[in-house]
Design brief:
About 45% of the residues lie in helices and about 15% in strands. The protein is of the alpha/beta class and about 260 residues long. The protein has a single domain (about 1-255), classed as 3-Layer(aba) Sandwich (Rossmann fold), CATH 3.40.50. Strands 3-4-2-5-1-6-7 form a 7-stranded mixed sheet, with helices on both faces. Strand 6 (about 150-155), helix 7 and strand 7 (about 180-190) form a beta-alpha-beta unit.
């Protein structure tokens, strides 16, 4: 199963959600791969423990070899790196992805990621794709490659406006490129139940009939500590309240428990 975490607004927790759901899958014995398509490389550093730029076998090199036919093209497996966590691997990002984008668009390579990840499903039970907060070649490739899409939402008015744009973009991808893509739901992140605005915004989304996932993720200093330690919550603080929230979210996505409000 291939899942993309996508939003056009930055700071909504895409990387945290991608990496912690992937780690939760891995901790439950599922062979899991994270594909880091954000040139910032935050998912790569979070899970591998050092900057994406330190890895020569990265997604920029993987995409670059698509620009010229060669019988010596390297297999996708050669760009996969093991993390310190059992069952969890990463295809690391690179800042060079930014410079390749227009060349890849010109060569019409938009379906290459889908074909690659489809082949890798023989080796992985779950594939998570992290994306930059932008509409570009890589986010389009991710939406075409994925079977399911999660949309993080961080409870402010700007996020709500971005959400409508995101849903429209997904619908266009579904109609033109990937009819099998399914929106699993909107993940409410950094939720403060004591504040009036977050609850009002979530209620408004539910009233509109949007697929808001029942389990919301709260803000906590433990997430910053997790980033600093470069260790996902399930390994750093397995009994923490936020870790339990992630487990509940993961299980609902896996069909264990109620998912959408």
């Amino acid at each position: 199963m291939r899942r993309v975490i996508f939003n056009l607004k930055g700071g909504v927790g895409k990387t945290s959600i991608t990496c912690n759901l992937a780690a939760m899958s891995a901790s439950q014995g599922l062979r899991t791969l994270v594909v880091d398509l954000d040139p910032q490389g935050n998912s790569s550093e979070y899970l591998l423990g050092k900057p994406a730029a330190d890895y020569q076998d990265n997604l920029a090199v993987f995409f670059e070899q698509m620009l010229s036919f060669s019988v010596f093209s390297r297999r996708a497996e050669e760009f996969i790196h093991s993390t310190p966590f059992e069952n969890l691997d990463v295809m690391p990002s690179s800042p060079e992805l930014m410079y390749l984008e227009h060349k890849l668009e010109a060569k019409h390579k938009i379906y290459k990621l889908k074909s690659t990840l489809s082949r890798l499903e023989d080796q992985y039970d779950r594939i998570y794709i992290d994306t930059a907060p932008a509409l570009n070649f890589y986010t389009h490739s991710a939406l075409i490659a994925a079977e399911r899409c999660l949309i993080p939402f961080d409870c402010d008015a700007f996020s709500r406006q971005a959400l409508y744009t995101v849903l429209g973009e997904i619908q266009e991808i579904q109609e033109d490129h990937n009819a099998g893509l399914r929106v699993e739901g909107i993940v409410v992140n950094q939720f403060d139940a004591r504040a009036r605005l977050p609850g009002a915004l979530v209620d408004a989304l539910v009233d509109e009939g949007l697929p808001v996932i029942k389990t919301a993720l709260s803000s906590s200093i433990i997430m910053k500590e997790s980033h600093e330690e470069k260790t996902p919550l399930v390994y750093l603080a397995p009994n923490h309240a936020l870790t339990n929230r992630y487990k509940k979210l993961h299980d609902s996505l896996e069909g264990v428990g109620e998912a959408v409000v």
